[in-house]
Amino acid sequence: xxxxxxxxxxxxxxxxxxxxxxxxxxxxxxxxxxxxxxxxxxxxxxxxxxxxxxxxxxxxxxxxxxxxxxxxxxxxxxxxxxxxxxxxxxxxxxxxxxxxxxxxxxxxxxxxxxxxxxxxxxxxxxxxxxxxxxxxxxxxxxxxxxxxxxxxxxxxxxxxxxxxxxxxxxxxxxxxxxxxxxxxxxxxxxxxxxxxxxxxxxxxxxxxxxxxxxxxxxxxxxxxxxxxxxxxxxxxxxxxxxxxxxxxxxxxxxxxxxxxxxxxxxxxxxxxxxxxxxxxxxxxxxxxxxxxxxxxxxxxxxxxxxxxxxxxxxxxxxxxxxxxxxxxxxxxxxxxxxxxxxxxxxxxxxxxxxxxxxxxxxxxxxxxxxxxxxxxxxxxxxxxxxxxxxxxxxxxxxxxxxxxxxxxxxxxxxxxxxxxxxxxxxxxxxxxxxxxxxxxxxxxxxxxxxxxxxxxxxxxxxxxxxxxxxxxxxxxxxxxxxxxxxxxxxxxxxxxxxxxxxxxxxxxxxxxxxxxxxxxxxxxxxxxxxxxxxx
Amino acid sequence: xxxxxxxxxxxxxxxxxxxxxxxxxxxxxxxxxxxxxxxxxxxxxxxxxxxxxxxxxxxxxxxxxxxxxxxxxxxxxxxxxxxxxxxxxxxxxxxxxxxxxxxxxxxxxxxxxxxxxxxxxxxxxxxxxxxxxxxxxxxxxxxxxxxxxxxxxxxxxxxxxxxxxxxxxxxx
Lengths: 535, 172
Known about the structure:
The complex is a heterodimer.
Chain A lengths: L2 E3 L7 E3 L3 E4 L3 H12 L4 E4 L24 H8 L14 E2 L8 H4 L9 H9 L10 H10 L10 H12 L5 E2 L29 H7 L3 E4 L1 E9 L2 E10 L5 E8 L4 E4 L2 H11 L12 E3 L2 E7 L14 E3 L9 E5 L4 H5 L7 H10 L3 E8 L11 E4 L5 E4 L4 H20 L4 E4 L5 E3 L5 H4 L13 E2 L2 E3 L24 E3 L14 H18 L20
Parallel strand pairs in A: 1-7, 2-10, 3-4, 3-11, 4-7, 5-21, 11-23
Antiparallel strand pairs in A: 6-14, 8-9, 9-10, 12-22, 13-16, 13-19, 14-15, 15-16, 17-18, 19-20
Helix pairs in contact in A: 1-7, 1-13, 5-13, 6-11
Chain B lengths: L1 H7 L18 H15 L10 H9 L4 H16 L3 E3 L2 E3 L6 H12 L4 H18 L6 H4 L10 H4 L17
Antiparallel strand pairs in B: 1-2
Helix pairs in contact in B: 1-4, 2-4, 2-5, 2-6, 5-6
């Protein structure tokens, strides 16, 4: 069928597909393709804009509108123009909001689910193990494909050097890139189609099989009758996210798949009065990210090269473990995190940007059964916001991750390391580590904290007081409503979640097919070993 | 609250703010934004970021309405409720000297109140990120720009991988 841009729709519409999938990120893309392969008439609704495929001015550029400029791309590709914050302002949330969702803007890191996390999930009644997930993981690895890209940028190379000097195990982090051009623009969308994002793979293949995608389409609510969802009500928005006054009503024949992410999915369910006695939105998790920038004697060209293909699993174990990864960084992203003003702002930018190398740590949360963690709430306009405070149990590991990253930078030859504390801290020697260990991350704006992974809020769980989604991915009490995104996670994952969401969405698609007397097929099981080390 | 503060606010007129139509700001909040950005970035910042006010106004479109209102409120609070007394007279933010405006920014940054630190972060983050979004600032950072305009970056050989068992000497 086609990709239809809602901003250009000039009439109200009513559609009757077999399945309506809400969200086009990792979960939505997978379900769109597998349900289309099974012969169903599939409709995907995406709040963000389309990314048309038309040749751009640079050699090999296939997506003209992705011009790699931060100022143009953040508003186009990210939720709230990349300015989304937790309710208390303490954490910056970077989430995709475009065709392909997070897969369009992530740094292409591909890790499997952490075994320790899957064990915890089994205790909470979830059916997934690394063994029974293997065919799903294999399908993802071979279809995208996921590869080891060993062209390391300067941040990665400095990290490897520092790790080696401290005898810290470090590993290649597999990517879903193919013949990467090393432009470093993964975070602002790959215009060369070298990152195998949703709009290059899953969604494109689904459209080729007849699926229809509406972009610029914001879902207001679902309408229920008994144990069935009967209608999806949405409206179209313009290029600046303002309503166009045109409406869409979907009356799906078979059902609805929620895949709007761990903030979007609970928000739509709450707007639909499907909050399951306020269980929906509860226990939402993030990976809080701590960041360090090392300053080196030479130019580092920090924006260029594959951003995320080097990591260490050394500190990943435990309920509050952390993964250290390396990246690329750009002027706007850097400036937005400095917590500085005046001459010092410009000095920091001039000192650390041209000669900088970045490392950052994703922190695991969500394992303490007595902790409330985050809650998705609706504001007065019905828009979602995440009420989240950094758990006390994570404060020590967050301090230690900064200490460890600083040690690695200094061992690699950094002359100083910028710690995004308030007030900012430049570390030049070990004796300053005590300052890092005083940072109170529970207080907003005592340090810059990001997250790029939001999970939970509509969890699968055997505990009736927490369960929103059953083990067959159906939403509690509704037979034709499935949830296939990161919102089903009962804890944070402790790893970049893209591959896990793909794999669980494949499992969900198999369940949906079986429940609707259709055939689900694996098509990419032939291939070598999965590309991951044990961790 | 914003309505009341707006009645009190009387930001200093600045000829540098030339925009006449706005999506989300108005003349009043645009002038406060300019005074804040000047304190964050320094005098003459528009030379390198000539579209500063227009860019911030455009970005506010993409925020959810409640967040957008919070930003406007942060500007009005800064202008009207954090005055310094200069020569016995209470003066609003945009009428203060650069040095005094920076004193207020310091007070916000080091405040024990969460709301005031959040205001500091919002004002500083918006100013700094919008400024460094401008191509005219990139030369200060030795940032070569995006590959669309600088394909030679793509043709440079990638960094040489190094592994613990690599027999080659370690590069610095």
